[in-house]
């Protein structure tokens, strides 16, 4: 099915947005290739695609951040030039970014009028805005206290402020870029109810996401992008997650993880009363107890920022903590000289960090230099005082082959690999060390669906070799699919532990929101 | 995918930058009514046309090699060491103390001792800002600049009040004994039948500077310490993840950097002046920054850039001597070279990248 098919049934109105033949290249990378799309008014139109498929580029062109090399934009049938975001706003387009653009220590009202003040004096603007804002809140059921300070609001509320900001600027078309990335499942449901209401009031919504479930739940029509091209536009009701996944990847994909029930052995990781205070003096982990046994995967679920990252940092040896951690029965130093990554590795702890581009890899280093990273003082990589570059290279070649890294070129810089292949380089480095305990954060963030399958298989294979695995992920689906046992973190506490076979997203979602046992 | 082939990146970009700097310099020379072509000829013959010219060019290049390497090593650790000037001054103090206090039997031993003294004093001067950065987070750019002033004041005091020989009116140390005088290139080349100017100050230190280039390359790309320095310089969070101590690397990189800057003193203090004078460094510490920038912090690039700046220094001195082009204009020319090769790098790089893309699309 193509875009023309779907629009053919709705010939009555001009499309709210029509893009014709949009192309955009960044250097040698063709981010968008001849993209045409029609978004009908009063619908929720999903755009789905893997990381790097060109979704964000396309929306940035629509919002005036980039100029297309070729192509035309029509808003409600009118050919429109959008050289900057001011023009986009004037054309009735509002954008809600993945990372909110709010001034933290301003009130809701002050944020709403920021950049849309009329006149040099603030007071009249504010009182006029207050009236409009309350009308908007009433009209769309978006209740937010205009005088609340942003930093006191939860993420879900902050997102509402972003939506109100767009509505205040009289947006008829709302673009939401990965809006549920930081939300709990309950907050996400609320967001979708708000979007329903907006649609009922005649607004047009473009929802960009890589989550198939959201597309199926929320949208009327969905367009699939792959490698800069629009591969299909279909009615959501006429498609299935499996079909969409295949359209995104270009081949059949296994959406479930194949694994046998775990056979947990001895306790490998034993955490008692762990507390972590961050650099700003805020307590992030507030006394947690957790055990991981050999041959099991324990997943830590939770909305980002509830202490999971700090837990991994302490275990990985680059943040200090207090309390007691034992690995294979021996205590682990939580501060001081022996609490560093090198000592951890010597104890058989491997770590795939949450942010591979910031921590796990040196992006300018070649694949072989990155393969030695953290293990560069290992005797097998040394010859005398020198690094044995030849040994590292050949080891890298072997690892790249076993983990199917593409292209299999050890000399290529890490930044030139795709997200999935970068992650495979890190995984190969950590898993092939045959660690007793593997810490793994966000194993598939920014990784294409095709590679996710492979990465999940590798993690399960390590478990089946009798290793202990601690998995941290903000993707609840991933935790449920991969982990044998799930612990939910909220505000630095573990809210509860469940066997993953005996729980579901709803129960975990409540725990993630701090509700429940 | 890399946009440009490696050779274009390392050779073409600096070359075009230099050419632009040269063209602009020519316009400036024309504007004051002089002939730019004659000026270039004079610079080339003055700096490269005789062994005397070469002797000066290489003498200056030796200074810039040490300070350029110093800046490069710190730069690989993500640290901007602006304190090469002060570290080289203190290196001079180390050399002077070594040469004056110990009765060396032969210059070779004296050279080893003086090198150690120079490196030690330079490293010690870098150690304080390094410690402040590593432990207290005081920005190294600020502290190293301040330490240049402190070094100047310290040397001023020592030379006037402590090291000045009795009865001398000159704020300088006593002359070094004959035994520690280093052989010049003339002395070194004569036995193998090459005649080199006797008057030029280039000396055996040049060879040590070249050796330092090789050793720095080895350190950075062949040892795990160099690997850790480069890792830390690229990404501090990643270094922490890998178990690389930021404190240790900051200290070690700055000690090596300060040591290299200090070693410049064996060239100018021991090899040329043969006593410690006020302001012996003459800005070479700052030129080192430009040399490191232009040489892309790679020892081989630093070598080429140091020789280029040696040429500009010597050629510039000749210009000032034989033409009406004022000495200040030489500084302008040097500044243009720094501006184009360092600061305006992207101005050349971006159009070149576009050009390479076009040819690739055309062929592919």
TrEMBL record, chain A:
GO terms for cellular component: plasma membrane. Residues 17-252, 269-516 form the ABC transporter domain. One of its GO terms (molecular function) is ATP binding. InterPro entries: AAA+_ATPase, ABC_carbohydrate_import_ATPase, ABC_transporter-like_ATP-bd, ABC_transporter-like_CS. It comes from the Bacteria. It holds the Pfam family ABC_tran. Its main location: membrane. The keyword ATP-binding applies. It is a peripheral membrane protein. SMART domains: AAA (SM00382). It is found in: Cell membrane. Keywords: ATP-binding, Cell membrane, Membrane, Nucleotide-binding, Repeat, Sugar transport, Translocase, Transport. Belongs to the ABC transporter superfamily. This is ABC transporter ATP-binding protein. It comes from Roseobacter insulae.
UniProtKB/TrEMBL annotation, chain B:
One of its GO terms (molecular function) is transmembrane transporter activity. It holds the Pfam family BPD_transp_2. The keyword Cell membrane applies. The chain crosses the membrane at residues 57-80, 87-104, 110-128, 140-160, 199-220, 241-264, 276-295, 302-323, 329-348. It is a multi-pass membrane protein. InterPro entries: ABC_transp_permease. PANTHER family: ABC TRANSPORTER, PERMEASE PROTEIN, GUANOSINE ABC TRANSPORTER PERMEASE PROTEIN NUPP. This is ABC transporter permease. It comes from Roseobacter insulae. The lineage of its organism: Bacteria, Pseudomonadati, Pseudomonadota, Alphaproteobacteria, Rhodobacterales.
